[in-house]
Amino acid sequence: WAAKQLGVCGALIVYLDNYLVNMSSKPVLYYAARSPPCRAVLLTAAAIGLELDLRPTNLKERDHLTPEFLKLNPQHTIPVLDDNGTIVTDSHVINAYLVDKYSPDETLYPKDQLKRREVDARLYFDAGHLFPRVRLMVEPIIYFDAYEISQEKIAYMQLAYDGLERCLANAPYLCGEHLTIADLCAVASVSTAALFAPIDEEKFPKLAAWLKRLSLLPYYQKNNQDGADLLHSFVTERMVSNKKAKEAEK
């Protein structure tokens, strides 16, 4: 009986030990450094001082289509956050979740409903306008053998710049006097877009100043610009190789 009791106690200790280890583990982020939405999450985590367990996800190797990944996110997109079993998808939702759960700083994602709605509106602008126009410029090159970005696509991107310029008309940040997750999401898209559709500082002075302002954040280079530069190099190389392949077909 005593031996049986010890066995039960030992099993309970092991269970509790594993439980505490799991509960204390860092949130896991499945990501790719070249991806603007993934970089938006890296920026937000850095802004609130949260350390993540980073799991690189290779889309070329179809990591996002494995059965294990599809259980996490049937939409097979990145980023995906696994916070001790709580699965959160979409960068905008992930950032809101992280700030709500881990940050004492309410300015990043205000509790006040009116202020929060303004942040949400800017998040939706990124999701519906900024990032899709980045994709429109680069994905045909990455996936469909295009070798140039048309002036029409650049002009379409600049229409989105105009929207941001107007948002910044009377304040240093997209939602007023304070940095929010709307800025961190938008800057991941804009900093990438600007590498392919440069921002005209005379036409968009507020936007150019905003981008410069965010680039001075101490965590910006590592968590955003390095990845944007990787994407730019990759796309530029693809443009060259795609063009050579097209010319060889003639």
**Rg (C-alpha, Å):** 22 Å
- Per DSSP, the total helix count is 9
From the helix content, strand content and strand pairing, which structural class follows?
Answer: alpha+beta
What are the segments in which pLDDT stays under 50 over at least 5 consecutive residues?
Answer: 1-24
Keywords:
globular, 250 residues, 63% helix, 6% strand, Glutathione S-transferase Yfyf (Class Pi), Chain A, domain 2, Glutaredoxin, GST_C, disordered N terminus, glutathione transferase activity, alpha+beta, 2 domains, four-stranded mixed β-sheet, 4 strands
Overview of this protein structure:
This protein is an alpha+beta fold and 250 residues long. The protein folds into 2 domains: 26-102, Glutaredoxin (3-Layer(aba) Sandwich), CATH 3.40.30; 113-249, Glutathione S-transferase Yfyf (Class Pi), Chain A, domain 2 (Up-down Bundle). It is 63% helix and 6% strand. It is built from 9 helices and 4 strands, in the order αβαβαββαααααα. It has helices at 2-24, 36-47, 67-72, 91-102, 113-143, 151-167, 181-196, 205-215, 220-249, and strands at residues 28-31, 53-56, 80-83, 86-89. A 4-stranded mixed sheet has the order 2-1-3-4, with helices on one face. β3 (80-83) and β4 (86-89) form a beta hairpin. α2 (36-47) packs antiparallel against α9, α5 (113-143) packs parallel to α7 and α7 (181-196) runs parallel beside α9.
What are the SSEs and their pairings?
Layout: H1 2-24, E1 28-31, H2 36-47, E2 53-56, H3 67-72, E3 80-83, E4 86-89, H4 91-102, H5 113-143, H6 151-167, H7 181-196, H8 205-215, H9 220-249
Parallel strand pairs: 1-2
Antiparallel strand pairs: 1-3, 3-4
Helix pairs in contact: 2-4, 2-7, 2-9, 5-6, 5-7, 7-9
